[in-house]
Amino acid sequence: MTQLYHADPDSIRHCADLILEGKLVAFPTETVYGLGANGMDPDAVRSIFAAKDRPADNPLIYHIHSLSQWSGLVTDIPDAAAALAEAFWPGPMTIILPAKPCVPEVGRAGLATVGVRMPDHPVAAAFLAACGVPVAAPSANRSGRPSPTRAEDVMKDMDGRIPAVLDGGPCRIGLESTVLSVEIDRVRILRPGGVTREMLEAVVPHVEVHVSALSPMAAGSSAPSPGMLHRHYAPKARVLLASGSARDQAEKICSAYDACSENCMILGTEENLPIYGKRKVLTWGTRTDPGTLAETLFTLLREADRQGASVLFAETVEPVGLGLAVMNRLLRAAEFRYLGDTV
Ligand code: TXA
Ligand code: MG
Q1: Is residue 105 a contact partner of residue 63, using CB atoms and an 8 Å limit?
Q2: What is the tens place of the pLDDT at every residue in 252-261?
Q3: What is the spatial distance between Cα 147 and Cα 33, in angstroms, rounded to a whole number?
Q4: Contact by Cβ (8 Å): 199, 182
C-alpha cells in the first residue's frame, strides 16, 4: 500500500526519514513529480529502477537544496555552469558535469558524469533540506508513460510499488527540466525544458540544441542523454500530429477525425475550438502562451487514456521558447508520426 501524505512539516519529516532508511518517496517539484531515493545509497537508488521498470542505462538526476551539496557531487564547476546556476537555480534546469567517485555508479548508469538540479518548489526544498542528502529522482511515472504532474497521477502509476507520495498539488510548469551539458566553452541542451534556450543565451553567449531535441535518435548512435533513446511520454492512444498553419492543422484534423471509425479525440488549442464544433476535444491552452500548453500536455495525454481514446489527433506549435520543450515531448508521444504519413 502506498501512503498519500498532504505535505505539511510532520509528513515532510516522516518522508525524509523514509529516505534515510533507504526507501522511496515521490515528491512534487515545479516541473513534474519525482521518485526520490537517497542518492548516496546504491541499494536505494537501484530500487528506483525496479519501481519504474526503468532501463538501467538511463541515469538519474540528483536533487539538491544548497550549492555546497553540488560541490560534493561534481569534480569541478566551470564558470559557465556557476553563472547558469546563479541565474536559474532554484529552477527547472539540470546541469551535467563530471561526477566525484562518491556518486554511486548505478545512479549515473555507469557514466562518468552526474546531472544535478535544485528544484524551485517549497515542498521540494523543505523535503530536500530535511533529507540532508542529495536525492536521486527521475520523474515518478512508470517508464515510458507521461510524467506525473499531480499526486493522483503518481498514485495511478506507483500505487503498491512505493511506500509514500507527498502531495504538494499540481506542478506549475508541467514538463521536466532543461538538461544541459556544460563543458568549458560549450553549453548544449540535451533535453529542452522550463528554462528556454533564449533564457540561457541571456547568460552565456551561445547555446546549442542537440539534434535529438526534435528528431529521433537512431538506436546504436551515441546518445548524449540516454533517456532520449527510449520510447517516451506515450499515452495508450496512437498520437498523430498535424502540420501547417493553425487553421490548416484544424482542417486536416477534422477530415481525419470524420474519416476515423475508432475512438478518436483531438488535442486542440483554444483558438481552433470553433472549427472543431462538437467533435471530442481535449482543450490544450492557447497558442499565444506556450506555458499553458506545457502545463497541461501530460495531464491531457493521461486524460485521453482515461477516456479510452484509441487515436489522438494533436496540433503542433513552433519549436521556439517553451514551444521547443512542448514539441520535444509531443514528437516522442507521437513517435514522430504526422497525419498523412504513409504507414
Ligand atoms: O524536471 C525534471 O528533470 C524531473 C524532476 C523530478 O526533477 N526529473 C526528470 O528525471 O525528468 P528523468 O529521469 O525522467 O529524466 C532525466 C533525463 C534523462 O533523459 C536522462 O537520460 C538525462 O536526464 N540524464 C541524467 N543524467 C545524465 C547524465 N549524466 N548524462 C546525460 N544525460 C543524463
Ligand atoms: Mg522521465
Answers
A1: no
A2: 999 999 999 9
A3: 8
A4: no
Whose CA is closest to 252, among 289, 326, 260, 270? 260
Q: Say how many Å lie between the first and final Cα of the chain, rounded.
A: 43
* pLDDT tens digit sequence for 146-188: 999 999 999 999 999 999 999 999 999 999 999 999 998 799 9
320-332: string of b/e by CB count within 10 Å (b at 16+)?
ebbbbbbbbbbbb
- Give, for ligand 1, the residue of 61, 147, 149, 172 to mutate: max count of ligand atoms closer than 8 Å to Cβ: 61
CB 269 within 8 A of CB 246: yes
**Atom 30 (ligand 1) nearest CA:** 225
Q: pLDDT digits over 124-134, tens only?
A: 999 999 999 99
What is the 38 CA–ligand 2 centroid distance (Å)?
18
Neighbours of ion ligand 2 (CB under 5 A): 139
Residue 64: which residues within 8 A CB-CB, separation 6 or more? 70, 73, 116, 117, 118, 128, 134
Q: What predicted TM-score, i.e. pTM, was given to this entire model? A: 0.96
Which atom, in ligand 1's list, is nearest to the CA of 33? 6
